[in-house]
Amino acid sequence: MKKNKSFKDFADWYNLAKETNFNESILPKRIKLVPESLLSKYIHIDDDFDKQKSFTNSDEVPHELANLPTGIYPTKYGYYSVSNRNKCVILKRKSNFIFKVTRNVISSSIKFDVEKLHKIEFQTLLDGKLTKPLIMAADELTKPENIMEKLKTTGIHFSCLTADELKSVLYIEYKICKRSLNVFENPAIAQINNKSYWLYNNACYDIKENKLIEAEKDSSLKQGVLKIDSQIEIALNPPKGMKVPNLPNRELLDLKNPKYKYLQETAEFYKDYFKDKPDSINILAASLIRNTLEVYKNSIEPFMIIGNAIMSPFVDVVYEQLKAYPVSYGHGEARSGKSNILELIANLFGYNASFISGGNDTSKNVMHNMEHYNKTPLLYAEVESNIKRQFAENIKAFYDRTPRKIMKGYGQEQDLKAINATIHFTSNDLLPNNEQTMTRLIFSEFKQDNFDFKKAIPFNVIRDNLIGLILPEILFYLNNPEYIKKLIDLNDKKIEIIDKKSKTLSIDTRSRKNLAVAMTGIDLLFNVANLNKEKCSNDIQQMQENLVEYLAHYAEVTETKDHFLTFMEILTEMFRQSKLNTNQDYIFNSKGLAIYLNSIMPSFRQTLKSTCELGEYIPKIAEIKNSAKKYGCSYEVVNFKGKSQRALVIPYTVSGIDYISSVISARNEEINRAGEVI
Fold this sequence. Notes:
This protein is of the alpha+beta class. It is built from 23 helices and 26 strands. Strands 5, 6, 7, 8, 9, 14, 15 and 16 form an eight-stranded mixed sheet that branches. Strands 1-4-3-2 form a four-stranded antiparallel sheet. A four-stranded antiparallel sheet has the order 10-11-12-13, with no helix packed on it.
């Protein structure tokens, strides 16, 4: 045996055995041969493509390449095919590169569940160097013409691989790869391996582990990638035009920074009211509470909208209890601080003022946004145009979270579009004025006198740069949904107790539960601030005392007129103005006064608008009929001038019928007198 001989691989051992006529097995049983070791001395960088090299192979004189099963093998010069037929081993060069599959890319779009589209990220080893990564769908990768077109951007690649050979080599590489990249279209909650993550563009929050993971640069996506562990990575890649949230830099939260002196002042202001020694996040949350109280003169209204928005990540828990999610509606004068609250909420969730929508959005686009922004509050600064015209219908869909159904075509199944986000409106007008809409809203009234914009200015830099750091602390409560349910129940009972103590309050069950959701959001904010609501400063105490006044005003605003009484009031006025024709619009029969509603409704609407306050709600026929049942009215077929029509029959016992009868009689007497001959 030659001394000092170096052995790099199996080929060196094999050649030594041949040189020394060593006939016994030098390999342990079941050893896995490295194909490139056997192929290395038969391949060259200048081999022609798809041109065969033949080597004699027989039972008497077996060729060493016969140890390799027929197939495609990667080498330093590219892929080579090996086949054994007609007592020959045939070797062909198939490419000047080999594939390296680096990650399984899972594209996810959240609707009701995560819908997955799998792609493959790969590189090529070309002339001994790795090219830049590419991402392609699996079906595209198996088509030689597609992949060669894509590879043009990374270098000069030559290939004679057939579609089947391409599938074979890619599948082998795919099996070896254990890494996965989960690319989500939707911000906020993402589920991976039964764990929940809250996604930002530049970070994610591991809810279970209470841990922030910052993004690292990734050459394939040209954006940040979040490394969950050695094998799992996450990226947020929304469709064009969609906003993405960003988590503020935690290192910016420096209490000693003169730029944020308001934080130091807050720590001193509330020093006697923290439950225990506060950390920087506690003080940041406390500064939000303090500034909102200062700016809005200790009123609770802005906190109700903030609290309802804070509960957006808990929409599943809320829906489980309410089978709905309340819609925020802040109304009031211009320059009363409504937009300021929306901007605060946007920053809290990692967005900026550009996330707030104007008033000219369409209902269809609002629904599309609700599908995309998962468990995120959508903010609308005004209610105009399309949304305003269909406000009642929109609110019902938003509140009940009814999935949209879109028919593709005859005989095809419908697509279900999810409603994941929550909705928060502000408006200069008090638009909703029917019971079905009002009881789905959380009202908050804003007044110019209650808004001091000068006191908001010192907080703006904190709001814009830091306030988003509070959200992960709130998200941690997703680990304890039972605690959230308990808080909602406690707040519901709290409102019920206040309601019973007052002789004037009368808040319906649905509204009470809606308010309990918003109050639970306020509780979470105080929890993060580490402030004691029982032993609290004067401003917080005043805000809590204002709850009773707020509930009284809420009950007043949501109180709706009885639709039938409104109808009777306007109907009487129509008879006074002689707008109705006997035997055509109405008729008296044995049961009472029969009104043909379809006939009189245009005139009814016109009379109501001219006699009532601006913005008065106009009841629909169905609402009038439904309300009339309480007064013993029926809906029957009645004969009008020989035609049978379904009409509302109002019994003579109903208050007001006698007066209407007297108005008609008086008018008939005047007509008769006018026709007398003197």
